[in-house]
């Protein structure tokens, strides 16, 4: 699909390259497929809520919540990549996350961007 050489020296190149920029140096956008997104909502369990409440009184990182948010963001991004791949894209440009509270029961994370087909110039 055209990005097989792009890997930046960090292991094998992904089949869907996700970037926060409007373009990728050395590549041109051959086709804009459109918006893609990955969405997930995670609830916090009671133990982490109690721990977070106590920690907020004395300060410091909320490690349990940090771990949950990282896992949630990764899941949303995986879903975005799956959707892009299913639509024939090999890249997602202008990638962003949106994080909101979901009616006090958890955290909603949406990963979104523009799916494209890129080719090496």
Automatic annotation (TrEMBL):
Pfam families, per the entry: YbjQ_1 (PF01906)
InterPro entries linked: UPF0145_dom_sf, UPF0145_YbjQ-like
Domain of life according to the entry: Bacteria
Similarity comment text for this entry: Belongs to the UPF0145 family.
Protein name: UPF0145 protein J8N05_08335
């Amino acid at each position: 699909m055209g990005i097989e050489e792009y890997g930046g020296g960090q292991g094998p190149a992904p089949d869907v390259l996700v970037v926060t920029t409007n373009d990728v140096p050395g590549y041109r956008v051959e086709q804009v497929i459109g918006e893609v997104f990955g969405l997930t909502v995670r609830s916090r369990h009671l133990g982490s809520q109690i721990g977070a409440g106590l920690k907020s009184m004395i300060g410091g990182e909320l490690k349990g919540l940090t771990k949950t948010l990282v896992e949630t963001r990764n899941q949303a991004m995986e879903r975005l990549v799956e959707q892009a791949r299913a639509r024939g894209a090999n890249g997602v440009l202008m990638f962003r996350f949106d994080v909101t509270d979901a009616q006090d029961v958890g955290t909603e994370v949406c990963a979104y961007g523009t799916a494209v087909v890129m080719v090496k110039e």
